[in-house]
Amino acid sequence: MSFGQPLFLVALVLVPVAVLAYLRHEVTRRAAVASFASPAVFASVAPSTPGWRRHVPIGVYAVALMVLLVALAKPQTTVAVPIERASIMLTTDFSGSMQSTDVAPSRLVAARTAAQDFLRDVPDNVRVGLVSFNQAAKLVSSPTTDRTLLSQAISTLQPSGGTATGEALAVSLNALASEVDVDGVRAPSAIVLLSDGTSTRGRSPEKIARQAKELKIPIYTVTLGTSTGTIDVTRSDGTVETKLVPPDPVQMQRVAEISGGRTFTADNVQELSTVYKQLGSRIGYREEPRELTAAFSGGALVLLAAGALASLYWFRRLV
């Protein structure tokens, strides 16, 4: 225990001084009583005496004074406060192929819905970050408990460009790897990849999945789209070409398996709850100072009240 105002503890010397003064008063009082009547007739003059009860209120007052002086010194203690630790990175594809309508109303809308549902269902104490990607990956937000920020960012995504799945996973992995606790330990973490799975740019997703496995960060993949998905592409001459954009569920499954995660489709996206259920959270502790002034002050008031009630009950006076 420590004290914010330790100089007040010096005043504790007043307590033994008061006790000595009280004892001296008792000696003087008994001498006065003895001089009032001889021992032979004292019993008839004062047939009963308070005995030990005389000293109880004063003793309680003395203890209350000690507790009050300690309260003035602002006592403090350090307590271990439990904290929940877990981080998830939502990695969302908004490439041009995500505008395909083979998943109603479109792959991108399905990805948005899945992401929003996930944000709504994930426990409040789990930190969630966001990486969006097309031909380039962008860290929109590091893991946070601010769901509003992430929800707004997801709702503004518009499909365009190519697909750099490996780059997006690398950005997500780097962000999670840097998430450490106050004691320097990395919290449990995972990546949720929402994509149609066809990687056309950058590093191999499988290579990043192996790095994720080494870091014990599983990747859970959600494959959006069907083999008949198409998009309309405007050529340089102004004509419109209908282009087939099938997803790559095989690659998405490989990424999940290599990293130690699981794979899902848009049809069973509700099962994403298994991500944070399997991820769980690790209870850690951080030390926080707690001031005990109120507790000591309350204790002193209770003691003062107890002493006063005892004195009133036995002697019809406060002291």
Please describe what this structure looks like.
The chain is rod-shaped. Strands 5-4-3-6-7-10 form a 6-stranded mixed β-sheet, with helices on both faces. Strands 1-2-11 form a 3-stranded antiparallel β-sheet. The protein has a two-stranded antiparallel ribbon with strand order 8-9. Helix 4 links the parallel strand 3 (87-93) and strand 4. It folds into 2 domains: 2-79 and 289-315, no CATH class; 87-280, von Willebrand factor, type A domain (Rossmann fold, 3-Layer(aba) Sandwich), CATH 3.40.50.410. The chain has 319 residues and is α/β, with parallel strands linked by helices. Helix content is 42%, strand content 22%. It has 10 helices and 11 strands. The model has no long low-confidence stretch (mean pLDDT 81).
